Amino acid sequence: MSRGTTNDRPPAPHAADSHDMIRVHGARENNLKDVSVEIPKRRLTVFTGVSGSGKSSLVFDTVAAESQRLINETYSAFVQGFMPATARPDVDVLDGLTTVIAVDQQRMGGDPRSTVGTATDANAMLRILFSRLGDPHIGSPKAYSFNVASISGAGAVTLERGGQTVKERRAFSVTGGMCPRCEGRGTVTDLDLGRLYDDTKSLNEGALTIPGYKPGGWNHRLYSESGLVDPDKPIRSYTKKQLADFLHREPVRMKIAGINMTYEGLIPRLRKSMLAKDKEAMQPHIREFVERAVTFTTCPDCEGTRLSAGARSSKIKGISIADACAMQISDLAKWVSGLDEPSVAPLLATLRHTLDSFVEIGLGYLSLDRAAGTLSGGEAQRVKMIRHLGSALTDVTYVFDEPTTGLHPHDIERMNGLLLRLRDKGNTVLVVEHKPEVIAIADHIVDLGPGAGAAGGTVCFEGGVEGLRASGTVTGRHFDDRAALKGAPRVPSGALEIRGASAHNLRGVDVDVPLGVLTVVTGVAGSGKSSLIHGSVPASAGVVSVDQTPIRGSRRSNPATYTGLLEPIRKAFAKANGVKPALFSANSEGACPTCNGAGVVYTDLAMMAGVATTCEDCEGKRFDASVLEYRLGGRDISEVLEMPVAEAEEFFGAGEARTPAAHRILERLVDVGLGYLTLGQPLTTLSGGERQRLKLATHMGEKGGIYVLDEPTAGLHLADVEHLLGLLDRLVDSGKSVIVIEHHQAVMAHADWIIDLGPGAGHDGGRIVFEGTPAELVAARSTLTGEHLAAYVGA
Q: pTM value?
């Protein structure tokens, strides 16, 4: 007789299955105001809201940061000592976290030897492949690496053997693939000596024109007090030996002013200190000097491939590793698919998968030898995604920061498919995004706001797409917004002629870019838009270019210092109080002596997270108490830096504090929709969209008749795009010519003239496929852009 019960109740769920939410309670990072949300696991959740509403603070600075911190704590104290120590986010409860893989938009490595291939391990696999199948065989995978130099040596070594000391002669050699001429960089640099010094002057007369080499400084004293040259003699009068010592001397130790220093010729010293660094990471004045004094030319020995003659001589089916890396990745994937060699079958399978992932994610137009530093933010993010596609990991949390940045509407459909695939494998996918196409596929939406900065930081809506539409939030109201096609386009006042443009993948493009109107250059990612405009518009045409390079700034940098606003404010305070302007800088004489003007005192705790405590002497105001006694319009300098931009615009616009120079800059900041930022807010706390607009406001003050904007809608909410369109109209109406490289359909619809490149990416693009008004593009529907724009405007 069965012992089973007659009770048909389903079995109770397992306790382990009850943890299906990531719970966040009381989050206060940056501008978040005690935010509490429950994020469903194994679902796609999109975080939206106006730029600066707190999306990244919640997703990256709270959820992702705490997951990373907890994982780091599992390592030994020794290992943690080598890792960045981060403090616990300012949140009451974080429960249900899983391992987070964050894929952000940080630009990829600035190292000149970093390429798409080295960043994704595709190069490593190709090197192994050529070391096994290459003919002639030249050595191990190192022999195909442009990061490994060939070295050899010989000498006596002393060994202990059988209780006796024995001397033996040993020789060794390492065969590397690095080109000896350019050292794996692909380019060689030549210095224009006339830009380094004025040979009619002596060193003491200030002959050196290099930044940081002024008379009296240590860089200058190294040469003037070396004893190798006469500091009072004009450089053109040096003997051959003196000039060689001055320019090319090998490093040698010597005493200068009683201090042991290493003397080195001027040219090798500059090569190490300036030319070995990434140009984009340099300070502006040093970058300007390098661009003026240095000519970068393709290495004549390796023809830009970075590889030695031996590495280039070894081939598989007539293709060398240099040829393979130079191929468009979509073509390389086909070539690898045609290789059939059982001895390396697992390697070929993995390499095929990696290359197919490039094509699938819309980056098939790149080549593996493309320098990583030249990728846009959107391209860099998608390259980082490559290693996660096809990963066997499940039940992890993937966090994406606007993965559609830089993508044409046609490519966004493909990106949506990838996000859904990651979710369907059992992963939690969190996406910070503004595009309605991505919001529409979400399982769950968290809308932050209602405003930006201090006016944001609260959850306005949680739920599904239909609920968002009916919610009445800023995102909900603008979700179905569609810009109408411009009825009466402006008439051009002239044209900028571009003839025979052939940079990168452009195919001898001839085009007339109309002036005095709003021109939008569009096309799928990789079709040649940036190459056409940035590479062909002459600098002499009075061009103000606002590209996608990120704003760099420390925690001491803020909107007032970045825009140059602090300079007229300091002068106004100094004039009103009869003292020096330097007193009103927290980085100069006015700094609080206890915290050196940082406002906080940092205590380093080695592998534990450092502690930052508000400075007790200045109470976080950053200035010395005596400086705060000086006032302008009834406010001290710390109170001025705590003002929002909109309030400061009124303050410096009239009355006792009237300062026209400061007022002009503040007007531009209000114009780009940053009226809510405080003047002294650290740049490190600004969102990507806020930084983009801060940069735009700064460039708007430059003198120039043509403005070139590269994807200005990146990081902007649907509501902010309206403000941007108004700003572009005001620029054109004031007599400027505005050229916008853009994918956003609202900007295309608003244009006076559209130039569409394509039809595809890489070698499938590089041609003009349409020129005309938005209405003509929609009517023709002859291109991918035309089809998507027609669908957008409902034509």
A: 0.82
